[in-house]
Amino acid sequence: MAKVELHRVKGDFGFEAKDKYGHKVTMDTSDETGGNNFGIRPMQMLLMGLGGCSAIDIIAILKKQRQQVDDFKIEIEGEREQGKEPSLWKNIRVKYLLKGKIEPEKAKRACELSMGKYCSVAATLLKSGTKITWSVKVTGE
Predict the structure, then answer these.
(1) For the domain bounded by 42-139, which CATH number is listed?
(2) Would you kindly state where each structural domain of the chain is located, as residue ranges?
(3) Closest to 98 (Cα-Cα) out of 62, 135, 137
(4) Rounded CA gap, 78 and 62, in Å?
(5) Is the bond leading into 86 cis (omega within 30 degrees of zero)?
(6) Which of 7, 19, 32, 45 sees the fewest Cβ atoms within 10 Å?
(7) Is the dihedral of CA 32, 38, 43, 44 positive or negative?
(8) How much is the pLDDT for 141?
(9) Are the C-beta atoms of residues 42 and 28 closer than 8 Å to each other?
């Protein structure tokens, strides 16, 4: 069972979240909505979680295929529903940028497996109706 704790540490909306291992992250809302811009917005953290979950899958798959990943970056953009409460993620675009001795087809397949089968965050978002599109670019050394 996963467990996290949140504690208000700054102003009205500045929170620190901590997992059972002591890893911490700060969260807040924008200045416009009464926050202090102290930390990450919770909905942005969901995008970060999507990236982290997928990245772990992809690296694990490519390592099994003996591909040499020298650098790995993910760019994620999201668009939320307008005029609704709650305002869910409507569209998310993920761009995978890999560098190294990597066969492009293997990289594409690893991304496909992550987004379609292994990534729990992607599955959660997809079940809520979010449209997720992705692309992958591999460059040599």
Answers:
(1) 3.30.300.20
(2) 4-33, 42-139
(3) 137
(4) 26
(5) yes
(6) 32
(7) positive
(8) 65
(9) no
